[in-house]
From TrEMBL:
GO terms for molecular function: alpha,alpha-trehalose-phosphate synthase (UDP-forming) activity; trehalose-phosphatase activity. GO terms for cellular component: cytosol. This is Trehalose-6-phosphate synthase. Its EC number is 2.4.1.-, 2.4.1.15. It comes from the Bacteria. It holds the Pfam family Glyco_transf_20.
Length: 490
């Protein structure tokens, strides 16, 4: 323990740093994604710990040495859980991403329920739990992140290791009729009840879990109202809560106001000749609804031909799981759709869809947010979707419009001031986009101001505070920043 104080220990599948091979040498790069964005500032210089896999499966690599410099600069300590290629294939690509990911996103037809995936999932979860037991003390608070590690509390207790544990699910939790299709459903529910606190993005996800629990334990009692409730089920007593994750509003707002970023945003608008810009930003994944979105843009130009030449759709697709065949096929499908739409509508001086399959530097992404008149955020299902919040935070002109899927977790918070749409309804989206394009300026400003105020108030630090308060009656301020951090291995 650092300075004799309680530490906040984050445990996730991946560390916030990634090992990449550059020629014959391994290099360390900062991780990307919502989890790293959310929790890295929380742990920085507070004596915190992050436990996870490095992303490498080569046993000859001295991972700890490679990560030492990153750890010092990041301001928190990293502990690596080594995984073999077989373990990664079965636990990560198999159980996590071929079973839990599609099932929890209501896409059960994509599931592959191989028993060997389940066995490897348990083996790797036990391996993580061993690392947690070795590298933490009974005073630490262990905050487990996401569906990859649902058995952590179960295995810690089976080893006789006493820890205060919280679990947060970053994806949706399905209703009983979908969850019951999981062959190992009761074991997963049992494992989750071993945590002291189980958190979800929305009350709907929390209630779905409670209903599944009642299917197995009809005597389950739930007491309380509001975001956090008490559960008694069998011999277990724990808490369930809804904690909608968010972003660092000031970071995105400040970056958008930066002179260099503002110039980049201006250049984007200039390059597109100050046409209206509709923007989509997603990790390439079949849950994000990118093909359906492109078809909606196609429908927009068919239904409202007066918009041809006056509007551009920009889709940024960040590469993801490129080695998986399903994702290769998705990329091909999207590229073919873009080609068909551009082939149907383009004329000299105007191409309707600009498609970018690559990762953008953070400042350039914010410049696109700032330049866009409309954000089209239409996942088929999403736990939260931080792009919707990032767009609003970066919209410093307060002149933008958010068009948001009703199946994104963010819809519960932002529904009053966003256009909510069904991502499968191409004509409905086209009509709402047309309304958004012609929306009165004063009305745009009113709704965007409300969206920004909501996100500013309920930011990432509010999310952390609300979870910690429910878990251990503490706030982030109870883990104060230190001028100099000396890491100790327990």
């Amino acid at each position: 323990m650092v300075g004799g104080k309680q530490r906040l220990v984050v445990v996730s599948n991946r560390l916030p740093a990634t090992l990449k091979k550059d020629g014959d040498e391994w290099t360390v790069q900062g991780g990307a994604g919502g989890l790293v964005t959310a929790l890295a500032p929380v742990l920085k210089n507070r004596g915190g710990v992050w436990i996870g896999w490095s992303g490498a499966s080569d046993p000859s690599i001295d991972v700890d040495s490679l990560l030492a410099d990153f750890s010092a600069k990041a301001g928190y300590e990293l502990y690596t859980v080594p995984l073999t290629k077989e373990e990664v294939d079965g636990y990560y690509f198999g159980f996590s991403n071929e079973i839990i990911w599609p099932l929890f996103h209501d896409l059960q037809t994509r599931c592959r329920f191989h028993p060997r995936y389940w066995r490897m999932y348990l083996d790797v979860n036990f391996k993580f739990a061993e690392m947690v037991a070795r590298s933490t003390t009974p005073d630490d608070y262990i905050w487990i992140q996401d569906y990859h590690l649902m058995h952590q509390a179960f295995f810690l207790k089976s080893m006789g290791v006493k820890r205060q544990t919280g679990f947060f699910l970053h994806i949706p939790f399905p209703p009983p009729d979908i969850f019951m299709k999981l062959p190992w459903r009761w074991k997963v529910i049992q494992a989750l009840t071993e945590f002291d606190l189980v958190g979800f993005h929305t009350t709907q996800d929390r209630d779905n879990f409670a209903e599944c629990l009642r299917r197995f334990q009809p005597d389950t009692e739930i007491e309380g109202s509001g975001a956090v409730v008490e559960v008694r089920s069998g011999n277990r007593q724990f808490r369930l809560g809804a904690f909608p994750i968010s972003i660092d509003f000031n970071q995105f707002n400040g970056l958008a106001e930066n002179e260099d970023v503002a110039r980049k945003a201006f250049n984007i608008r200039e390059a597109l000749r100050h046409r209206k810009i509709i923007l989509g930003v997603d990790r390439l994944d079949y849950t994000k609804g990118i093909p359906e979105r492109i078809r909606s843009i196609q429908t927009l130009f068919r239904m409202f031909p007066d918009l041809r030449g006056r509007v551009n759709f920009v889709q940024i697709a960040v590469p993801s799981r490129e080695e998986v065949d399903e994702y290769k096929e998705l990329r091909t499908e999207i590229e073919q759709l873009v080609g068909r739409v551009n082939g149907e509508f383009s004329f000299p001086g105007w191409v309707p869809v600009h498609y970018h399959y690559k990762s953008f530097p953070h400042d350039e992404l914010v410049a696109y947010y700032s330049a866009a008149d409309i954000a089209l955020v239409t996942p088929l299902r999403d736990g939260m979707n931080l792009v919707a919040k990032e767009y609003c935070a970066a919209n410093v002109s307060q002149d933008g419009v958010l068009v948001l899927s009703e199946f994104a977790g963010a819809a519960a918070q932002l529904q009053e001031d966003a256009y909510l749409v069904n991502p499968y309804d191409m004509e409905g989206i086209a009509k709402d986009l047309n309304r958004a394009i012609h929306r009165d300026k004063a009305e745009r400003k009113l709704h965007m101001t409300n969206l920004r105020d909501q996100i500013r108030k309920n930011n990432i630090y509010w999310w952390v505070d609300s979870f910690l308060q429910a878990g251990i009656s503490k706030r982030l301020g109870d883990f104060p920043e230190m001028a100099t951090v000396q890491f100790e291995r327990e």
